[in-house]
Amino acid sequence: MKREAFKMYLKPGFEEEYEKRHAAIWPELKKMLQENGVSDYSIYWDKDTNILFACQKTEGGSSQDQGDNPIVQKWWDYMADIMDTNPDNSPVSIPLKEVFHMD
């Protein structure tokens, strides 16, 4: 099991909408992520910078590595209006290096 973290960018004024959409995450997306080894997935919001900090445990690949899946592509399209995205609508996602961990 590997721990991974990354940051993304939320467009200003969309904090409530981001939370609303994730509170109703699609069951097929959640199932697909779990089946591909993603677990213990959390996203935090820094209100001063609008940076979203995500951390997850993975076996196989990060949630950010699932872009060839049609469910993920549909989710990216759904979220593109409220996040900074790449040309394919994937979120701009910057991996973060782990510098400390305590069990």
Automatic annotation (TrEMBL):
UniProt keyword annotation of Translocase present: no
GO MF annotations in UniProt: L-rhamnose mutarotase activity
Keywords: Carbohydrate metabolism, Cytoplasm, Isomerase, Rhamnose metabolism
EC number of this enzyme: 5.1.3.32
Listed GO biological process terms: rhamnose catabolic process
Record keyword Transit peptide present: no
Gene Ontology CC annotation, any one: cytoplasm
UniProt protein name: L-rhamnose mutarotase
Source organism of the structure: Bacteroides luti
The organism's taxonomic lineage, starting at the top: Bacteria, Pseudomonadati, Bacteroidota, Bacteroidia, Bacteroidales
